[in-house]
Design brief:
The complex is a heterodimer of chains A (169) and B (156). Chain A is an all-alpha fold and 169 residues long. Chain A contains 9 helices and no strands. In chain B, 31% of the residues are buried. The chains are: A mainly alpha (169), B mainly alpha (156). At the A-B interface, helix 2, helix 3, helix 4, helix 6 and helix 7 of A face helix 1, helix 3, helix 4 and helix 7 of B.
Chain lengths: 169, 156
């Protein structure tokens, strides 16, 4: 981290390599568009590296990075919605992520359906479930990212799981 | 070994399914699932989600890394650096500029439509485009991207 802060390109590359997948998935969870999620991941890293001086070190870099990714994705989503509302472009409505036929074959229809149902949950529940299951984060870390207490993150996770179980029945 | 109970088991299920638990905790969680149908059902749902975790596009880390190398420096470029970069890039010809690029060759649509939200304009601090020697190391895509940025800056 110290090397990255001093502008060491190799250190920054290591951080990208280690965290880009999580950053991409967090962005995808919010915007449901793989191309846009890639743009957001790139933008999030640029913002993070430019703001490394502001990284206090009291949060793990991963948590800090994923918070930036989530905020960047939310900002992007607001702009996409605004563009749609003002008729500035024809971006398709943000919908639950649907797996391609190949993906469904690979992971099984039930798995693809569960993932699609996850997209139907409210934002904070969806993020809590995704961050807990896909990224293995603790509820304290999830709370930092979604802007809530550890307890609220836990509640969001369990409500999300319960709702998913209902949707899958 | 005493049963860990549903509350603790439900917290542990994602780590159990994703094989992130240490041996002792795994054995404890598996023992609970062996006796609790409700937690077993929840583990099955979590397993479906683990199986459908989104794939990360190939080459994404390289793309981000390249963008960071081109635009990620914290050094502010001087005014003469911009002028030198403009001359050098224009000298590379129109052919490069007319290429249709990949995802890194232009500002994402959501960034292009920033309006007053200038925090998303990536033009403020880029130490790597201060002169031609740095430009020599850039790929065509990176150069197209640079041209886009400069033309956007010119319009601002």
């Amino acid at each position: 981290m110290r090397r990255a802060r001093s502008g060491d390109q190799g250190a920054m590359s290591q951080l990208v390599e280690r965290h880009h997948a999580s950053v991409f998935r967090v962005a995808l969870s919010l915007v449901s568009d793989p191309d846009l999620a890639q743009d957001i991941a790139q933008d999030a890293f640029l913002k993070a590296f430019r703001g490394l001086d502001g990284f206090r070190g009291d949060a793990a870099f991963r948590t800090w990075m994923l918070t930036i990714a989530a905020n960047t994705a939310r900002g992007a989503l607001r702009r996409v919605v605004r563009r749609r509302e003002t008729g500035l472009d024809g971006v398709a409505p943000v919908e639950s992520p649907e797996a391609s036929p190949e993906e469904q074959a690979a992971t099984g229809e039930e798995a693809a359906r569960a993932r699609a149902m996850l997209g139907r949950l409210p934002d904070k529940q969806r993020m809590a479930v995704q961050l807990r299951i896909d990224e293995g984060l603790s509820f304290r870390e999830i709370g930092e990212i979604i802007g809530s207490s550890e307890g609220a993150a836990r509640v969001n996770y369990f409500h999300g799981i319960r709702r998913l179980r209902e949707l899958m029945e | 070994m005493s049963d860990m109970g549903c509350e603790r088991a439900r917290v542990a299920i994602p780590d159990l399914v994703a094989k992130r638990l240490e041996a002792e905790a795994r054995i404890e969680a598996e023992a609970h699932l062996g006796t609790c149908a409700d937690c077993r059902e929840e583990a099955e749902l979590v397993a479906l989600l683990v199986a459908s975790r989104p794939e990360v596009p190939a080459g994404l880390s390289r793309r981000i890394d390249a963008a960071v190398r081109v635009r990620g420096g914290a050094v502010r470029r001087p005014w003469w650096g911009l002028a030198a970069a403009a001359v050098a890039v224009l000298a590379l010809g129109i052919g490069v500029a007319s290429r249709q690029g990949g995802p890194t060759s232009e500002l994402p649509a959501y960034v292009a439509d920033t309006g007053s939200e200038s925090e998303n304009l990536w033009l403020s601090d880029d130490g790597l485009i201060a002169g031609a020697p740095a430009l020599d190391a850039l790929s065509d895509d990176a150069l197209v991207q640079l041209l886009d940025e400069m033309s956007s800056e010119g319009q601002a």
